[in-house]
């Protein structure tokens, strides 16, 4: 890139940041006949420094190591976060460990979101508005048969199409064209003031826990149930009075069989139904 980051020594110069298997190299490539190494970054438990991406301010570099999980070097899927405020002296600022232990492959930053193609865990979307403390806010599992540590599932992601469309290529499963329910930051989980009924569940599909909110237009008694596709009640999620001034957060969890369910909310002035999918 043409560097416009925080280090004044290199602004306007062509800089290459490369994941080179054993670490990360920062190079000044302005003069193609005289490429100069600015810094070489090493980090603990390197397996195979594979691919990374800068945030839009060109300060933080997010790196995926493709073999640290496979070789048992880390307990869970790891994303390394480097602070490049001083290109001559970069530092490892933080490590993000995911809930899964699968192999990570490709990642890209758009605004305050980090999109990761994490093989058998599928697409993972992280809120990086706090650059050194990512928070997962959504995922789409393209490989719903489990989370084995192997080279299968989501291989690549492309989050730069118009209208928030995200492409995910999955080995053996094909191309997925997605539009995430939340497309900026974790603050988007705050409900819209005008909508009555159920929100979309987050995350979705879900493994252990997902949540959604319920809003009403006037005080009323509400019952919320999780149903199977035959309309039988699997779980009573909520029963009680809901006030219009405050939405109710609903949580789905428990030992449910993987599959498609319906969550149904019934009040005095509305009925709303949403499909929800639990995966292994």
Protein model, in words:
The protein is mainly beta and 280 residues long. The protein is built from no helices and 21 strands. The chain has strands at residues 15-19, 24-28, 36-41, 49-54, 60-65, 78-83, 91-97, 106-110, 113-117, 123-127, 135-140, 153-158, 166-171, 174-178, 197-198, 209-215, 220-227, 233-242, 248-253, 259-266, 271-278. The strands form six sheets. The chain has a four-stranded antiparallel sheet, with no helix packed on it. Strands 8-9-10-11 form a four-stranded antiparallel sheet, with no helix packed on it. The chain is elongated, with a radius of gyration of 22 Å. Mean pLDDT is 90; it is low at 183-193.
* SS-based class: mainly beta
CATH topology (level 3) name of the largest domain: Methylamine Dehydrogenase, Chain H
Strand content: over 45%
The CATH homologous superfamily of the largest domain? YVTN repeat-like/Quinoprotein amine dehydrogenase
Number of helices: 0
* Uncertain ranges: 183-193
User: Main sheet?
Assistant: 4 strands, antiparallel
CATH class of the largest domain: Mainly Beta
* CATH architecture level-2 label of the largest domain: 7 Propeller
- The total of beta strands comes to 21
Mean pLDDT: 90
Residue share in helix:
under 10%
Principal-axis shape equals elongated
- How far apart the termini lie comes to 41 Å
Strand order of the largest sheet: 4-5-6-7
H/E topology pattern: EEEEEEEEEEEEEEEEEEEEE
Radius of gyration: 22 Å
Number of domains: 2
């Amino acid at each position: 890139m043409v560097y416009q980051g925080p280090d004044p020594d290199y602004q306007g110069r062509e800089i290459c940041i490369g994941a080179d298997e054993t670490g990360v190299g920062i190079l000044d490539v302005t003069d193609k006949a005289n490429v100069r190494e600015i810094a070489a970054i090493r980090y603990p438990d390197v397996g195979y420094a594979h691919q990374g991406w800068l945030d839009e301010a060109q300060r933080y570099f997010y790196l995926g190591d493709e073999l640290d999980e496979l070789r048992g070097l880390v307990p869970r899927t790891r994303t390394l976060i480097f602070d490049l405020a001083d290109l001559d002296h970069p530092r490892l600022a933080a490590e993000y460990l995911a809930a899964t232990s699968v192999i990570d492959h490709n990642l890209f930053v758009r605004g305050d979101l980090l999109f990761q193609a994490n093989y058998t865990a599928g697409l993972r979307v992280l809120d990086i508005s706090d650059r050194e403390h990512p928070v997962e806010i959504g995922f789409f599992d393209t490989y719903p048969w489990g989370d084995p540590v192997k080279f299968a599932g989501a291989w690549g992601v492309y989050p730069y199409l118009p209208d928030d469309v995200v492409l995910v290529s999955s080995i053996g499963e094909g191309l997925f064209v997605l539009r995430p329910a939340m497309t900026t930051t974790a603050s988007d989980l705050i409900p819209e003031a005008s909508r009555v009924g159920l929100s979309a569940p987050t995350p979705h599909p879900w493994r252990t826990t997902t949540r959604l909110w319920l809003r009403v237009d006037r005080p009323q008694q509400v019952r919320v149930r999780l149903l199977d596709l035959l309309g039988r009640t699997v779980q009573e999620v909520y029963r009680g009075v809901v006030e219009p001034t405050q939405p109710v957060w609903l949580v789905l969890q428990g030992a449910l069989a993987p599959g498609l369910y319906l969550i149904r909310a019934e009040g005095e002035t509305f009925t709303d139904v949403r499909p929800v999918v639990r995966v292994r």
